[in-house]
Amino acid sequence: MLIKSSKQSDLKEHQVTDESVYLQRRELIKKMGFVGAGTLLSSAIPSVANAKGIDFFSSKAEKTFQRYALNFTADSSKNSEILTPEAKVTSHNNFYEFGTSKSDPVKNSQGFNVKPWQLKISGECDNPYTLDLDDLTKSFALEERIYRLRCVEAWSMVIPWVGFELAKLLQKAQPNSRAKYVAFETLHDPEQMPGQASRRIGGGIDYPYVEGLRIDEAMNPLALMSVGLYGKTLPAQNGAPIRLVVPWKYGFKSIKSIVAIKFTQSRPTSTWNVLAPSEYGFYANVNPEVDHPRWSQASERRITSGGLFARNRIDTLPFNGYGEEVADMYRNLDLRKNF
Amino acid sequence: MKYKVIFFKLFIHLAALLPLVNAYYLALTDQLGADPVESIIHFTGIGAFNLLLLGLAITPVSKRFKLSMLLKVRRLVGLYSFTYALCHLLNFLVFEIQFDWSLFFNEIIDRPYITVGMVGMLTLLALAITSIPSLKKRMGKSWQKLHNWVYLAVLLVGIHFYWSVKSEIIEPSIYLFITFMLLALRFKKFKKKIKKD
Fold it and tell me: Pick from A88, A276, A296: which is nearest to B103 by CB?
């Protein structure tokens, strides 16, 4: 029998600083600094001191997510479509981890911390590996791709992404013969993502968000791993630091803030498909012939600029206009059943 | 008393109209979110529902707190609810569907949540038209019968909202709960009616 006699100087369990408090120590010191500076200033310049006081209470909201310029080769395709303005691309987002309203993510994600970040590539492959934050922009040559993005809600944008082909990232892992599908997973961090902490904010989705592609879809040259848009690294609300872009599928397939990519033998689950299988299929190819049960998919509104009277309703194209590059993959598939 | 009512009515006019005018101004000049069409549709839809619930709360509140003045503005609140609902429908036709009439009628027929909303809208239209005092007088007892349909309308509006969202059902659930509460307050009235029929 082990008899442990404790000395009076020994620390008890309850005396241990809670980890969350421990991790906030720098934040605390910073804030104390603000208070100190504030009091000093208050005697000298009252108006500035007031501003500092506000700063102290709203230091979280005042943060802006930092973006950096990227080196990349420009898109050489002759895409003549009008780009969606950057301000709209970055303020109209479906990213329920940061709130369900389109304007929530930009508001709630400015303090999002991507350092450190790890993207693990694993599963049915011979060379599983991990990419750190810096590797995401340095491991593969970056190129710009101007793609149409068609949301399942029948609106669309044209966005100049910066990234690299998903195929390059996958090939490096040397998938084996059992790799039939590729599964993706978003970061799960309820402390940073309020939608994951509260069902009210997160729209009642089970997190982490997951998505999947067939291996041939994932290897298609159009499938892009995006690390930036409009020449700079991704804003948090658009899926920083790395996201998928599959331009011939509805937007919800283009999973954001990815931490894991896995080669699998069987078909992986995808979040919206699990939530409402009759409304959101696994394939989710853009298809004007197959309506969403609650709205038509035959046409869409292209978001560029202009107010209410912008006549922006256009026909939706099969595979979002990328049929030449991708239709072959679905030759033997009934696209009405496999929507 | 008379001046009080006039000021109260003026207040309601301003409280209902100013946000509406402001929202349209922002939407027309592309300042109401990245997609002003979606924003204005949601704004007018939820506004119509809020005003409808407010209108339905007037009778029980005025009875409970003996505020007869409230009853004098009930019609006005109801008419503003209809105004917002009409804007909601017109936004859908003019800015969302952009006068694609075949798509407009197809959506109303094919999409249950839009069908339900449309039936609610037509009910409100009937109530708005018959709110004209001379018509009300001429209708006699059948006026109240017709206006009892507001209970159906509010239920349809609640279902329309609940059905329209993708997964974020908490807000529409709260609205449905308030709707049921307001209907429950009329329980006696419904019971009497059923006995009589």
Answer: A296
- Indicate the burial class of A99 (C-beta count within 10 angstroms; 0-12, 13-18, 19 or more): buried
Sorted by sequence, the CB contacts under 8 Å of residue B117 that are 6+ apart come out as B156, B157, B160, B164
Domain extent at residue A294: 86-330
Task: Compute mean pLDDT per 10 residues along chain B, 197 residues long, and list them.
Answer: 89 97 97 95 98 97 92 96 98 96 94 97 98 94 95 97 93 97 89 76
Q: Are A105 and A92 in contact (CB under 8 A)?
A: no
Residues 55-74 of chain A whose Cβ lies under 8 A from any Cβ of chain B: none
Same domain, A98 and A169: yes
Question: Which chain A residue has its CA at the smallest distance from B173's CA?
Answer: A200
Its pTM stands at: 0.84
Residue with tokens 């999973």: A255
Whether B169 sits inside 8 A of A204 (CB atoms) is yes
A183 shares a domain with A142 = yes
Please indicate, yes or no, whether residues A47 and A166 belong to a single structural domain of this protein. no
Query: What phi and psi, each to the nearest 5 degrees, are found at residue B74?
Result: -60, -45
**Three-state DSSP class for residue A73:** strand
Shortest alpha-carbon distance between residue B51 and chain A (Å): 22
List chain B domain ranges. Answer: 2-189
Our count of domains for chain A comes to: 2
Supply the ipTM of this predicted assembly. Answer: 0.89
